[in-house]
Amino acid sequence: MLGPDLVGAVSNGRLLFGFALGLILWRAAVAAYNFFLHPLRRFPGPMFATQKLHERYGPVVRIASGYLSFTDVRAYKDIYGSLAVRSKTNSNGPALEMPKAAAFYDPIDDVPTVIVNAGREEHQRVRRAVSQGFSEAALRQYEPVIGRYVGQLLRQMHERSGAPLDCAAWYMWATFDIAAKPVFGKPIGCLDACAYHPPVVQLLFRTFGQLAMTRHKAFTDSMVHHRLATDKGRNDLLGTLISEGSGGQRLRFHVGRVRNMAAALSGIMYLLLTNPGALARLREEVRSTFSSAAEIKIGPVSKLPCLSAVLSKGLRAYPPQPTDLVRVVPAGGGVIAGHSVAGGVQPWSISHSRDHWAAPRPSPERFLASDDEARRAGNRLEALQPFSSGPRSCIGRPLVYAEMRLILARIMFEIDDMKPHDADTSSSDWIRPLRGYPLWDRPPLKVRFTIRT
Ligand code: HEM
């Protein structure tokens, strides 16, 4: 006769076995559905290294059971344009846009609604409200703030002439300081401290957990309260949100976005370090245009063709936004690059696609060509859209260009030589070990600068 312990163990074992079998059968059924019945079954590609898959399978690859990745340039307009979707039931109604995929934009509970993940109507309202804070007029208003922190960055580089500096960190500190002043009305002092403000970034990006999010929220709330208590009438980024009634809640996108800019600057710096010809031409352009650092202002730097080409080259080779910008085709369907499906464009894949670029490591000069000249040389400049396109494209683009141009022009003007710090091997081959999460995880980029005498 079996004892009660043995009976219990056998029935537990059966239960476990039944559970495991159920799990296997369920996974098999899902796999069979994905392979034989799923509406996207005709598109090739398992999930790994999207760019390589595009090289192998072409401009449309199935990167997950329900997701496609496109490198066809028509996909920008079809996916992100405001006329992208006219549902069958709404064929005469207002044009819609493809909604953002919740799995990518709202992956966990309690993600606060910010402009990036807001639904269409709320997004339109918030975008209208913040657009004033990103306008040309606002940019002119920020120019002295940007100039002050760029000056501080250069002064601190002067003080450390010849010593290895981690550019990736220094660009973060400068861009954070610049971003904080017009929003919170008071400095956060990253350049002063030569450190990130601990609650803002260290916890958020090292821990990347609920605790970090809570600390980050408490910090931004305290800064917003300070601003609300001290200065209500200013017509800047936060001022427009306050007068519209949205408060500081919508500004939590800020940290990640500013980090994009620092990532772009680091990528551009690395590419200049490894391309001495482009570095020399850029330095020559800046030095022959300006006779003092004080002349380097947003207006004149935006007219330097070589500088613009270097920015494009950097943004192409190293798109600061690493993740796919995934959209969902709503009920009623949509057509993307000639296919009736859903999908997104992965910035890295499209900006490295051999379908659009003649050489894998092109020089910045290709971006000086007109669209027609470029096309004849085998390059499709419209494939480069690092800020995305359509009604949900990057609103910070003019600010980003102004800041990057000012920083690079000042560096070219005031620095005679820059070299990777050889002892740190990660700096002499910096791009290879990068890891793309929602933001880039970057190793330090250590560089030795020699100040102009
Ligand atoms: C090189 C730097 C940057 C790049 C490459 C970049 C790129 C992008 C991209 C690709 C999007 C679309 C995201 C999506 O579809 O989900 C976006 C959206 C956005 N970006 Fe940027 N960004 C940069 C810097 C900034 C900065 C510095 C700010 C502001 C301080 C900013 C503010 C925004 C906002 C508010 C949105 C959401 C726009 C909307 O949904 O209407 N960005 N950015």
From TrEMBL:
Keywords, in A-Z order: Heme, Iron, Membrane, Metal-binding, Monooxygenase, Oxidoreductase, Transmembrane, Transmembrane helix
Presence of the UniProt keyword Iron in the record: yes
Transmembrane parts of this sequence: 15-37
MF term (GO), any: oxidoreductase activity, acting on paired donors, with incorporation or reduction of molecular oxygen
Binding residue positions for heme: C394
Keyword Signal attached: no
Cofactor(s) the protein requires to work: heme
Annotated signal peptide: none
InterPro entries membership: Cyt_P450, Cyt_P450_CS, Cyt_P450_E_grp-I, Cyt_P450_sf, Cytochrome_P450_monoxygenase
Cross-referenced Pfam families: p450
Top-level taxon of the source organism: Eukaryota
Protein family: Belongs to the cytochrome P450 family.
PANTHER family linked to this entry: CYTOCHROME P450, P450, PUTATIVE (EUROFUNG)-RELATED
Protein name: Cytochrome P450
Organism: Lasiosphaeria miniovina
